[in-house]
Write a structure and sequence with these properties.
The protein is α/β, with parallel strands linked by helices and 268 residues long. It has helices at 18-28, 42-51, 76-81, 100-110, 127-138, 151-160, 177-180, 218-225, 233-248, 259-265, and strands spanning 4-10, 33-39, 56-59, 73-74, 86-90, 93-97, 119-123, 143-148, 168-173, 186-189, 206-209, 229-232. Bound molecules: NADP nicotinamide-adenine-dinucleotide phosphate. Residues 61-62, 64, 100, 124-129, 148-150, 153, 174, 190-193, 210-212, 233, 236-237, 240 line the site of NADP nicotinamide-adenine-dinucleotide phosphate.
Length: 268
């Protein structure tokens, strides 16, 4: 039996690389710990959180906002973004934290991409989009345009998750995406959709695709061929997982030294 047990919760949680990432790190560091996937139905969420069955856990779709009422404390990142993707115990309290926003900024910095004064399109208006919108505003983006199938959800993010006055947040229905893409610097896709018209984008445009549960999308292949700046969702997954690891095991301050190795293993 492992001393420390961790997991990721979500529903349906059919595909996740998180157990692979964490168990690889536990093996590398010879830690007596294990990380599993734990698909949970909505009615099981509260009892799971209160059971404190595991040392810590990650939270994925669709519970990043739903979990908030069951926690005893929120980190600044979780409070600001209104989303939690990591829960751990500190001073006997269950703390909710958000490492998605930290991972997002980390990846951009590594690629020398600044959000300041940029025009950004976010596709989707779920939990991840909410975090990204906040971080774009925090990093002084000029305009964040959120397009979504359900317009009301995009409108809500625009009114609630603005950090700085310099950023204009607007929303539209997904059918207006083509127009939104005309003058954009950065596209953040949090939907499972493929869009063939991406191939007409400028070569300077950055596309970050957060869904990673497919080998290579048609537009990823097209983008690589056209040398458009494409960022694979798996690089983001690894970064947010490493920030989570730091909370689970604070003594491993240099855990990011494994980032490149994990990227190579996962073929990012
Ligand atoms: N790479 C990573 O580490 C990482 C981390 C977090 C999340 N993710 C991925 O990012 C994605 C978004 O996560 P989330 O937590 O924001 O999920 P979410 O809250 O469920 O939001 C999903 C968004 O996608 C839209 N959508 C879903 N199916 C669609 C369809 N068929 N056509 C058009 N729009 C559709 C939804 O539109 P409606 O609002 O109209 O329903 C919603 O805006 C998920 O695929 C998740 O696996 C990846």
């Amino acid at each position: 039996m492992n001393d420390k047990q961790f997991c990721v919760i979500g529903w349906p949680l059919s595909f996740t690389l998180s157990p692979f990432i964490f168990n690889t790190l536990f093996d590398e560091l010879k830690l007596n710990a294990s990380y599993s996937r734990n698909p949970l139905k909505k009615e099981e969420l509260q009892s799971f959180v209160h059971s404190k069955k595991v040392t810590g856990f990650n939270v994925t779709t669709p519970y990043k906002k739903e979990i908030l009422p069951y926690l005893e404390s929120l980190s600044e990142e979780a409070h600001q973004t209104g989303c939690v993707n990591l829960v751990y115990e500190e001073n006997q309290k269950l703390v909710g934290h958000n490492t998605d926003g930290l991972g997002f900024i980390h990846i951009l910095k590594k690629q020398d991409i600044s959000l300041e004064k940029k025009n950004i399109v976010i596709m989707g208006a779920g939990g991840l989009s909410q975090t990204l919108a906040y971080k774009c505003s925090e990093h002084k983006a000029k305009h964040v345009f959120i397009v979504n199938r359900t317009l009301e959800k995009a409108q809500k993010i625009c009114t609630q998750f603005k950090y700085c006055e310099q950023t204009q947040l607007t929303s539209s229905h997904l059918k207006d995406l083509k127009n939104a893409l005309l003058e954009t610097d950065i596209i953040l896709n949090t939907t499972p959709l493929y869009f063939s018209h991406f191939k007409n984008l400028s070569r300077n445009t950055v596309l970050m695709d957060f869904t990673y549960d497919r080998i290579e999308t048609p537009y990823e292949i097209e983008f690589k061929r056209n040398k458009v700046n494409f960022i694979n969702g798996k690089t983001f997954l690894i970064a947010q997982a490493l920030y989570s690891f730091q909370k689970f095991f604070p003594q491993y301050e240099d855990i990011f030294q494994y980032e490149k190795k994990l990227q190579n293993t996962l073929n990012c």
